[in-house]
Task: structure prediction
Amino acid sequence: MIKVSKLKEAVSAYGTPLYIYDLDVIEKQYLKLKNSMSNIKDLKIYFAAKALSNISILNYFKSLGTGLETSSIEEVKIGLKCGFNKDDILYSPNGVGLEEIIEANNLGVKLNLDSLESIEAFTENYSEREISIRINPNIYAGGNERISVGHKDSKFGISEDKLSRLVKIEQEGKLIVSGIHVHTGSDILKNEELELTVNKIFKIARKFKNLKSINLGGGIKVQYFDGDSKTDLKEYSNVICRELDKFTLETNRNIQIILEPGKFLTSESGFFLTKVNNIKKSYNTKFAQVNSGFNHFIRPTLYNSYHEIIKLNKDNDEKETYNVVGYICEKDTFAQQRTINKLKVGDLICFKNAGAYCFSMSSNYNSRVKPAEACIIDNKIKLIRKRETVENLLKNQINIFVK
Result:
């Protein structure tokens, strides 16, 4: 756990609101995952760039030896600028136009396509290209409906009834399916849901004769508070190895296993620091109003996610119950009826588990500027993104009424 004194030091240097990431935690999580999967002979871990796309963080992952899973052509280009080898970048788009797929193809990165329609359009001009395909396994898994992406009505992946068409396209020499991919959701609560996914994807793998890799996506659950559930990594690894051994024995083929976590690697490394603007009473509710909102930290509003909140300057042991809210012109509640140390105006509070899908989902709503980002490396605080200014908001706008 990061020392409170270090968080206070960061606030003194860079103000609030502020995101800060402990790189030691990222490395610890990476090694935990890698070591738990050590019985898999050929394993490659890709970091999901969408979770935390700051270039300093991406470069740190490159130094650890990960690949990069990208969801957009912009993430691909950022990954290349960070120095990732094109063979270590996996492009997994959804719903994009053919021109973006072609652009990614021309950049030489690995393609992971998730619709039969886009694959057929792509192979009209690019035959015999090795690609990976994303499967829709028809499995409902994940922390809530907004992060459950593998069920039958999901927009993601190719349904099983279309796989025979893909097999035929491959037999016709129009493409080579070298990888299959599945991702059922984030914050998967039950190991049996992971096991069901693994069993199904290995069964599907037998349909494709040129397969080199099976990508099991992410979804590994982290703890948000003491006593919270988390994925049993050793059990998960045993499930993968059991199916992998069966596949190897039956097909006499060696397959690389790919994992592409985001939240597991960075969530616990991140802390979001804010300042109390007001303490407001309204009927039966006491509000702690902070100098941020869902424009900076949308997960509690969007996903109803839980983030532990601590007061940094503990000047008393008295507890109070608050609705912790932001300064946006709509409901932006970070926590309801949360009991924490008694607050006053000017106090600093910290939201934990703010390292994944937090800054990367921030916006300029209400014309608010985005916060700064910093990291801790070798026990030193380094700024890795400057706080925006109003000039940043106006930079690309054009006033047609100015002559």
About this structure: Confidence is low (pLDDT under 50) at residues 140-144, 146-150. The longest helix spans residues 233-251. The domain at 269-386 is CATH 2.40.37.10 (Lyase, Ornithine Decarboxylase; Chain A, domain 1). The chain is about 30% helix and 25% strand.
